[in-house]
Description:
Elements: H1 8-18, E1 38-41, E2 47-53, E3 59-65, E4 75-78, E5 80-81, E6 86-92, H2 93-100, E7 106-113, E8 189-191, E9 212-215, H3 217-221, H4 235-239, H5 242-248, E10 252-255, H6 301-315, E11 319-324, E12 335-337, E13 340-342, H7 348-356, H8 381-396, E14 402-405, H9 430-437, E15 450-453, E16 473-475, H10 477-488, H11 497-504, H12 508-511, E17 521-524, H13 533-536, H14 569-585, E18 589-593, H15 624-642, E19 665-668, H16 677-680, E20 687-693, E21 703-709, E22 715-718, E23 728-733, E24 751-754, E25 759-762, E26 767-772
Parallel strand pairs: 9-10, 9-18, 10-11, 11-14, 14-15, 15-16, 16-17, 17-18
Antiparallel strand pairs: 1-2, 2-6, 3-4, 3-7, 5-6, 7-8, 12-13, 19-20, 20-21, 21-26, 22-25, 23-24, 23-26
Helix pairs in contact: 10-11, 14-15
Residues 656-658, 660, 662, 664, 693, 696 line the site of one calcium ion.
Amino acid sequence: MPRPRPVLALLLAAVLSAVGLTAAAPPAGAAVDARALGARYDATGSTITFRVHSAAATRIAVYLYAAPTGAAEKVSYVLTRDASAVFGVTVDVATLRDTHGLTGTIWYGYRAWGPNWPWTSTWTKGSSAGFVADVDAAGNRFNPNKLLVDPYARELSHDPLRPGATDDTVYASGPAHRTVDSGPYAPKGAVLAVATGATGVKPTRAFKDDVLYEVHVRGLTRDDPSVPAAWRGTYRGAATKAGYLASLGVTAVEFLPVQETQNDTNDVDPTGTAGDNYWGYMTLNWFAPDRRYAADRSPGGPTREFQTMVKAFHDAGIKVLLDVVYNHTGEGGARTIGGATAYDLWSWRGLDNPTYYSLTADRQASYDNTGVGGNYNTYHPVAQDLIVDSLAYWKDTLGVDGFRHDLATVLGNTCQHGCYRYSRTDPGTALNRIVREMPARPAGGGAGVDWIGEPWAIGAGTYQVGNLPAGWSEWNGQYRDTVRSDQNRMGYDPVTPGQLATRLAGSADLYGDDGRRPGNSVNFLVAHDGFTLRDLYACNAKNNNQPWPYGPSDGGSDDNRSWDQGGAAADQRRAARTGQALLLLSAGTPMMTGGDEVLRGVRCNNNPYNLDSSANWLTWNPDANQSAFRAFTSRLAAFRAAHPALRPATFYSSADGNGNGLGQLAWFTPAGTAPDAGYWNDPNNHALGWRIDGTEFGDPASAIYVAYNGWSGDVGFTLPSPGAGRQWYRVTDTSTWAEGPEQVARPGAEAALGGQGTGYLLRGRGLLLLVAR
Ligand SMILES: [Ca+2]
Ligand SMILES: [Ca+2]
Ligand SMILES: [Ca+2]
Ligand SMILES: [Ca+2]
């Protein structure tokens, strides 16, 4: 999702919080899966029970199909409402088979009536019988002509649009389309037996010890010639990359959304982007693995194949994290058709609009903090049940180890309709309920979930970097912005040595103030949303309006803090090495983006969300420079893994904790002296050194020293003490003179430099890494 910047939003949030403007907590949510919603076989497979929530529906019927398209339903049943607003019915499988000819996988959807469209016996599919209004004063938008996907369906048959059926108005309400029966077109849920595939043994590694790799499951292998053609771009293909990622030093793969999204039509125009969405941040259903990403697209195939992929990663010691989108849905916001405002209905909105969505105060429209459709009503206990139940399904049945929540501050909203108010502490928010019901992994490792939030959204009060609740790690946008500015915007975006040091040392100002730890800071330079690492250092501005396959894409931030380094390719590669080194040497949890290890570029497109194209898929034929950068990345990742001093459990101290004469963390000017306040606070100082006392961490190096020269010219550094009786040895210098496959020395092959007082000339925009022994 687009990333906004801290402006008045942060101040507003502080003011609201200070004056206690938070709503009373709603009733505590039920435990996981307490209401057993969805479609489920009984233990013997002889009955199916359908259960669906709606607070205001007056009638719900389930329609059962032998095939998802091309034929009318075989039979329908009216459900019975219970006191908790669950509509349910249990049907006999033998009757379905023998009387109604439902012999294979059963596909289903719901039709719902309510106060704005009561049921009448004269209603038939495609009629207006009973119609009162598209929406009533309470915000209900029932329309029995729209077949609705069960929010608890385990798999979907297809996307709302598919090749040969690309008219999205069939789902619309409003005067022109409210009587169009969407049944022949709509996605259907599959009634499936409980998935029992093995997902292996979950790693228990502390999150601070992870190296995250954000990647699109399709893009990972779609263009990989080493993967069998039928598996390319699928869960099965991704599973074959576990060994590669392990060798790169990746310990957690974080997939862009794999929950069902509209992508069946991406190839209708094979050389254009009209209507396409590649990233998939428009979720159709929170339980269903996207069918298009499966090599086995038969009913149950995506679920089984996803489980098998998880097992392959677990077998390689790699966690599987999912990017999930609970701030809005793919059902979309208001749109204009023929001059009239219309809303599409194919799931939540047609079942219970005011429960599942945040609405404007008059309940007549969507309330939108996301820029891509109405907010999901995350403060409502029933809407929260769906969040929690689906996350638990991915965690427990599909084996997922952690989740990154898109635009997560929408999940900290304490207001259901007509406003947005973030609270870190309100126990009734979705953020707090999630970690209460599915506790975060302990900081030192063990069983638990790695919870990551993108701590911003769009609009006032949503920028909350450093302010998610306990239990949550965060994409540290301040880390990204500070390092980018320092490397790319000298003279334009002032960065003091003090600001840089705070970010490199784990951002104690953001996560230490509320009891969290360095590992809660997910440090990153780039993500899917924005430039690739290569383009960050090779592009002065976005260039999104390119011809296929590099565009055209709309949108994209204009605040990229990027720079082409004057156009010299060698300087661009050096900047990438220095940035990658800063990332892998910082306290916190580093995240890189898939393909960055080979300097993947998309020619300055910074919003390629719609490019399901060869330009956006990873490439697997690196040239010599790309191979060298991959070696650089993997060896530095291995260095990080080998040195616990780089992965502190708590924030570094300047004190000498073991009396060996070295502070746990000490900062230095190039002269080898401690920076004074004047040095720390002057953005005209562009060089900084730091030393970590390895003996306080059980580190194989008695000390680690890093010198960073952000200045354009060479800087002479005077090395500090390596400790009594020790010498400094060079692991790497990111400067161009050292470029090549051996730029990071193997352990034991580091060049000896000398002891305290040794001079070292560090080239402009370079970084030096030393170990003492
Ligand atoms: Ca799909
Ligand atoms: Ca296309
Ligand atoms: Ca904080
Ligand atoms: Ca010490």
